[in-house]
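yo

u said u wanted the structure for the complex thing, so here. seqs first:
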Amino acid sequence: MISPNLSAIFYLVSGILFILALRGLSSPDTSRQGNYFGIAGMIIAIVVTFLSVGNFSSSLIYVIIFLLIGGAIGAYIAFKIPMTAMPELVAGFHSLVGLAAVFVAIAAFLNPAAFNLGSIGNIKLASLIEMSIGAAVGAITFSGSIIAFLKLRGIMSGSPVTFLGQHYLNLVLGIGIFVLIYYLCKTQSENIFWIVITISFLVGILLIIPIGGADMPVVISMLNSYSGWAAAGIGFTLENTALIITGALVGSSGAILSYIMCKAMNRSFISVILGGFGADNSINKNEKKDQKPVKSGNAEDAAFLMKNASSVIIVPGYGMAVAQAQHALREMVDKLKKNDIKVTYAIHPVAGRMPGHMNVLLAEANVPYDEVFELEDINNDFANSDVAFVIGANDVTNPIAKTDPKSPIFGMPVLDVEKCKSVLFVKRSLSPGYAGIDNELFYRDNTLMLFADAKKMTEDIVKNLD
Amino acid sequence: MEIDPFIFRLSIFILSIFIGYYVVWSVTPSLHTPLMSVTNAISSVIIVGAIIAALAGSSENIFTISSSFGFIAIILAAINIFGGFLVTQRMLQMYKKKKDKKK
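structre next:
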């Protein structure tokens, strides 16, 4: 058994290692080292916890068994999961953090003596507030992440679910949680504690169901942030520095990512949370879609166009992830490079379903990361390029965002693909994207539509490049 | 009057938010997905709470209601810790490969 002071210092060390883990991610070169720092921090925290409890009775064996069971499941998932499924995985992991926070809070509530928080029915006031906030945020994170997971997985429709008075209901429930926590502090009643948790589960569900598929990058980041605040809440309860530091880091990390994602869509955080985006627009826009002439081509045309180009910019989007076309795409690019054609990739911040989603997929397909550019770094290059190859992206290329103030995506930063000499658009149909609006690029003279599955079309182009 | 230890913890918390703010802004956008998976893994340090709860049972009665919640939380957090760090490692490995190839 080690003294509380010594273990507090070790927890501080593990907190610092976690900071270094995030710091490492500032460049791919240092990132792997950063990950090792994170692992070291975790090992220190766990070992110190064992030592500080110092109870090496038979429960210890069970703790280790449970730890290994969880670890085996986690490791199995980590190795099996395809990279295209990362958004679901991250959402799923968030839900586990949330639920773990709830369970730790429940355990502390039922056995406060084990945590030095007083006795049953007489828990220290501050601890009670901290643990109920931790439990409430954890519960919201859990159920919200489950909904996000189901939507991303396609088990639940990605379209927003809205009903009358939804926001008022959320507001009432939110206030209700605070009122109940107040009464919980006064009465120490176990029943109120359970009610707080139940309502929080409900709030998590209600909070995420109105948010549509295209807003998922914001949702995942937001839930990431919540999981951090939940951890911090529990950290205050347990008076544990490592948890407080980590919770604050994760909380601010998720908040910053949400901010970046919102900015990339030119939408306020509030409007994303209120949801319903892309639900009602699609209907009236569909009526307006009269038969405008569209040029469509096949793989042969596309191959011909690109072979004769001197520079090509690839614009990947969620469609590429769905079709798992990243490997075929890389093959195509290799062929083009052999013909001395300059190829770069342009990534919009909200391409895909989570921050950095496209980068990971391209990395998986062995695309060097110095060929992949962010929106602001590459947007000026479209005007000097011959071909823009848009694969599975839509709304993020729509020039209407720059021209029509009435459009729901007006003001959103978009990739200026229309400035290229020609635009190749791989898409299954003319259907509008998630914002529910028509993309006028489809009808331009310099656009050639390639109607097919992204993977199949890319493979066909590869054959035609020989 | 002595300062309540809570204030110290609050100070750590607020300073950490600032550290997080500056550190995360310096993360390159192409690594935002690994950032999410690694934050996921480190927030599972909540396992320390789960371990304390689980070890609180006595030798005669290892699985009390309270410690059972701890045990389940250990599994949940462990899935996250192993899964989170390993999947991050897997992703970062891919970023690395390219660099080597280029050289």
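The two ends of chain A are 70 Å apart (CA to CA). Chain A is about 60% helix and 10% strand.
cya
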